[in-house]
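Hello forum,

I keep getting stuck at the same step: I have a sequence, I want structure tokens, and every attempt I make locally crashes halfway through. Rather than fight my setup again tonight, could one of you with a working pipeline run this one for me? It's a single chain of 201 residues.
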Amino acid sequence: MVKSNIYSEIRKIKEYALDHNIPIMVDDGIDFLTTFVIKNQIENVLEIGTAIGYSAIMMALANPNLKVTSIERDEKRYMEAVKNIKALELEDRITLIYNDALHIKMDGEYDLIFIDAAKGQNINFFEKYKDHLAKGGFIITDNMKFHGYIDKKEEEIKSKNLRGLVRKIKDYRRFLEENEEYKTMFYDNVGDGVAVTTKKD
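Reply #2:
Ran it on my machine without issues. Output:
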């Protein structure tokens, strides 16, 4: 596919996300992710949370040898992702699974596990999939700053549900910081906050 068509399709995906209030990685976050994929020669990715396929597509475009397996539980978003991946002719490199990531059994090992799904389930996603990480692989988690809410005092957050979600993200950060098996670098100024985790030797 020619570059102008690729840019046009990417623009359409971003516009759809904006119009339908679907969270996708912000520009400097996706730049960080795609640069990371290139720099670390990532070739096999498991993505928890496809949404409409934006991050899977951007990773695949960054490295022509890369394959992505991505899991999405929302049917409408899954179908939109299928359409977007087909439009960019990436069906042979991006495999979509319509299911709940906490209920499905996966095989194989991955150079990168990218967690970008229900934020309140991050610890559960990590625990379920950590054994699928290849030796020397990485786990990347998005939205560690959660639109700035992580830095707010609890009483400043009016919604009870939102307060609960913010608490769970803070619990996940603490879980990563105190984890004796893994070490994590936090990039708080990248996108919406990114965590990069590796297994300790």
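The two ends are 42 Å apart (CA to CA). If your local run keeps crashing, start a new thread with the error log.
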